[in-house]
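job 3f2a | input accepted
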Amino acid sequence: MFKKLFGSSEPKEEKILPWIALNGIEQLNEIEERSTGKTQVIFKHSTRCGISRMVMNQFVAAYDLNLNADLYYLDLLSYRDVSNAVGYKFQVLHESPQLLVIKNGVVVAHASHGGINAMDLVKYI
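job 3f2a | predicted structure (125 res):
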């Protein structure tokens, strides 16, 4: 009964996603090229924003590790120039947090805030 009320004192196993660090503008051309054979996903995260952290934690918890996609993580505060270049190259307005799904060189879906976790990634893979 106490475990149901207060949770278990046993540590939870942390889920590790196969993040690829997005920290260079030159990577955007690689993402565009790779998107012709495999879906590319970019998660833009603000490390100073509590909402961004909450959305990211929910995203990590729900992410299906069996998805056939490359998953990029962009710390937009540390790499603001890359964040700006993402918006320019893929023609999306900047938001934070933000998820972009890229296939065949173009963004086929994007979402921000709560919309990120409402997105069904499977249908874009």
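job 3f2a | The helical segments are 2-6, 27-34, 50-62, 80-90, 114-118.
job 3f2a | closed
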